[in-house]
Amino acid sequence: MFLPEDLSESSLPSTTDDSASLRGGRRFEQIGTPAALKLLESIVDGDLPAGTSAVFLVETSLGVGDMFFAWLERCKALRFPVYFIGATSDPVTLDWFQHHTQEEMVEKLLSQDLKLPGFQCKGKEPPADVLLSPPPAPQFNLCSLRAGPTMAVPDKIMSEWATHPTHGHEFQDMVKAIFEEFGEPKPAASRPAADDPEIEPSPKRRRVADSVEFVDLDRLPGTKLAEAAMAGVKKDVQGKIMVQVDMKHEWWVSNTSDKTVSLAAGIAVAGFGAGQFQHQPRQGNEPAQVDTEKLLLFDMTEADLVLYNNKLETLGDLLHTRQVEKGKASISYHEVTPAPGDNLKKFDIVRKHEVYFKPTAKVVAEGEAGGEIKLHKGTGSFASLVPVSTLKQLKHAQVVWSVKWALKGLVPVKPYLCILEEIILDSKKAVKL
């Protein structure tokens, strides 16, 4: 189901609008393009008055454009012109419809599903006959070429001239200028080192890098504040993987089953409830003062992890993929520009609006001895029970935004508390996050 979005810079995600819900848009406006096509065919394929030279199709319930795309499809097979006129009294729907149809038509033109007279789609790659062959690599007497490409100066030359009493400083300046322009060469090797800091591990294969604290179930420290069954685990251990928070706001995941389980990177430990988004206008150039213990700010950097299609990815990778596929990548409430340099996954991201998520806890629970809370409906709003700042102290889990692509760019859906690396949890053991 589609839902027309307000495309203004500071508009909140549509799922929090008073007239909308998480279940999507109005169904009576979305019969689907195939059904709209059948309706259109019943009009233009029927008996038209004699002398008809054109048909004007007036759509007074514009909706999400089902009839428009049906008209676009049917025009391919008609031998007389059919004109489409859409009408709506809602400026938000009009703005969204124009942007949405333009993007859809661009994709159809590029994929050649839509053809226009006089328009020929250019190939993704330039024709081979207009490309110039790259010049041959220069031949050096003393130095050598490395990947990049860049120039490597032999150690013997460096040791001889870098400390020369007369020309040492001049030589160092020359080598520095070469490295600034082409980059410093890496040591020649058949394969990159495993601890190369520039090699980012795949989010799917993230392993626990910091020491993990495991304890037996009967030795769990502290007094429980709340406990609930963890969602997203395999069926054979459902209800047996428990999440608990103690009075010190320390988080533990315990395995009460008889099997060893793998907690994958990106699995959600807890959510923040239904919640709602709030926009706090700035006071001059400064963000407004808010209670950061109860509100989560949607503030992104390229190194942040996000949940996209239930997979953990870095924001830089997600933006790069979008840039390649669509030619541009943007984030709602932020300004995004490619960072200077050769790394296409680096972006300069500046927040322009302060949009917060206010958790709404819908906890169904019962009290136990010692003031503990036993939750009946899982951990969907579990994270809203504790101050936000305490979540930043966790070593192996953090708050991650679930995101989706919309017309105004990457928009937030909900925040979750997610495990950062794969954790192998043995039977009758608990791990501290």
What's the short story on this structure?
With 433 residues, the protein is α+β, with helices and mostly antiparallel strands. 18% of the residues lie in helices and 24% in strands.
User: What oligomeric state do these chains adopt?
Assistant: single chain
Question: What share of residues is helical?
Answer: 10-25%
The helix tally amounts to 7
Describe the sheet with the most strands: 7 strands, mixed
What strand order characterises the main sheet? Answer: 5-23-8-7-6-19-18
Radius of gyration, CA atoms, in whole angstroms: 29 Å
Structural class: alpha+beta
Summarize the helix and strand pattern as letters.
Answer: HEHEHEEHHEEEEEEEEEEHEEEEEHEEEE
Spatial separation of the terminal alpha carbons: 37 Å
Silhouette: flat
Q: Which residues sit in consecutive blocks of at least 5 with pLDDT less than 50? A: 16-24, 190-207
Instruction: Report the strand count.
Output: 23
Average pLDDT number: 76
The percent range for strand residues is 15-25%
Structure description:
The structure is a single chain. This protein is α+β, with helices and mostly antiparallel strands and 433 residues long. Among the domains are: 97 residues, no CATH class; 39 residues, no CATH class; 163 residues, no CATH class. It contains 7 helices and 23 strands. The strands form 7 sheets. Strands 5-23-8-7-6-19-18 form a 7-stranded mixed beta sheet, with no helix packed on it. Strands 10-21-20-13-14 form a 5-stranded mixed beta sheet. Helix 1 packs across helix 2. The chain is flat. The two termini are 37 Å apart. About 6% of the residues have low confidence.
